[in-house]
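Q: What would this complex look like in 3D?
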Amino acid sequence: MDKIAFKFPKSLKSTLFHYCPGCHHSIVHRLLCEVIDELEIQEKSVGIASIGCACFLYFYIDVDILEAPHGRACAAATGIKRAKPELIVFTYQGDGDFAAIGFNESFHSALRGEKITAIMINNTLYGMTGGQVSPTTVPYQKTTTTPEGKNPAYYGYPPKIAEIFSNLEGVAFSGRFAVNTPKRVLETKRALKKAFLAQIYNLGFGYIEILSSCPVNWKLDPIKANKKIDELINFYTLGVFKDKVENFLKKEKN
Amino acid sequence: MKAKKILVKGVEAIALGALEANCKCYFGYPITPQNEIPEMMARELPKRGGVFLQAESELSAINMVLGACAVGVRAMTSSSSPGISLMCESFSYIAALELPAVVVNVMRGGPGLGGIEASQGDYFQAVKSPGHGDFHFMVLAPYNAQEAYELTAKAFELAEKYRNPVMILSDAILGQMKEPIILKNLKIKEYPKNDWALTGAKNRPSRIIRSLFLDSQELKKRNLKLKNKYKKMEKEILFEVSVENNEKAILVAFGSMARIVKEVYFILKNKGYPVGFFRPITLFPFPVKPIQKILHNAKNPLKFLVIELNCGQMVEDVKLAVNGKAEVISLFYPPSVIPFPEELERKIKKWIK
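A: Here is my prediction, written as structure tokens for the whole assembly.
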């Protein structure tokens, strides 16, 4: 019998995505499900859907899911993990949710080294509300609330969360990835797995930031929006900035 | 268990009530005058296999409570007025998600930073609208340490029974005053949570706990479900009443103010004044029918004198209950200085001549 190389993930619900054409949420959803399946954690996972386009996470990912208030996903995840440490807890948040309104909750959860996995989808603006400026909007980028471009002299510079978190003792894994090429998709999946392993091995906070296209609000067609990620990478460097998981696995082997 | 009598602050009685109810998680942020609650929980919960965590803000604390409740674990927070305001966004979510959270508000003076003396200024916030949307907490108002202990324990049972958040509304006087309480086995019931809690989708379909319903019919259904639940809660109405049906005036007060008013009631009664006393213990649902019963049985035309440590809030609920069938007068004391019984006695006498 031929080996099955590609199949529908068990933890992905068999339904149609509501996401816009060219949006990267659906790719990340699939990767998340593949990782959940490979780690065999579907039955003990609780996901937190926060506010934004991906708040409908629960229509796609077949695990128990809680909808937290805007920005408070990491706090709710903390409550869950502290109350039931045997659960695998992840948050799935946008940049506005994670890095603007929820920055305090995100940062302090990382500082405390909560054994949770946080996935931040960075599309550099508020997608669901129509494309307003976000903290992660890059300098001079046009949004509906920065029609002339985001002037750093007026709005300052974006936080590079993956790099910032790599300096926190409580963080076990931190990195930034993209899913606009097949190679990057595979890299993202490997990293996503590590962000979960950081939790599974009780090493600390697992953080993964994924640059995502938003064709509708970037006012680009899906192909151009996908290419645009290559430009964003000049500002938001891709890579692993902290990885305690790799060291842990090496030690385990020895 | 043999009953044990101890001397504690009102806020400590609240913490002891939570421990008696086997509360497993406490999340909070410091604010005067309720810090003894987190301090006691920090000492006691880890010994009992529970979790104490001081959060970076009230916002975070209440969302930790939200998370713990969603996975079916008894959890609480406590704060005082300004901190409670910060939690209001999440109160709305917790009510919408139908989570059995217990929240304690040890009220202090306001508005703004106000002060740290006693106040009943958060009555409207607690009873009418502790957040956006259309929802209610069940609100319990103890008036001494014993009641604070017992009602806090009971709050966990009620929260689970109705899958609705419950608020203990205390204040700086009740919280900081030391009184003896009798510790006892309160036999707090625990309701099963295995049909709704998020515990991992093992041997069952996955679950969603959410409050977003973009389908307007679905949202309407959710709101009507909540409304029906509030109606059912009326079974839990608690109050204290001293009425013999020949009164000309009923003194109405809750919480710390009810203690002063009760003393004045006894003084006036002993002097032969025709006064009665009524103390709502559940502020939501409000004891409407018990008030209507007083009216129904009254042999004389009645006046309701509503005495509060605010500029007149509960008086509105008394007016709604009385529904024009008697005069309702607000004797208000703005959050700040509490009246001595003698002063209150003089004020009340003017109305019952």
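A: To summarize the key features: Chain B touches chain A at residues 24-25, 27, 51, 53, 55-57, 59-61, 63-71, 73, 75, 89-90, 93, 97, 198-203, 206-212 (CB under 8 Å). Residues 145-162 of chain B form the longest helix (18 residues).
Q: Very helpful, thank you.
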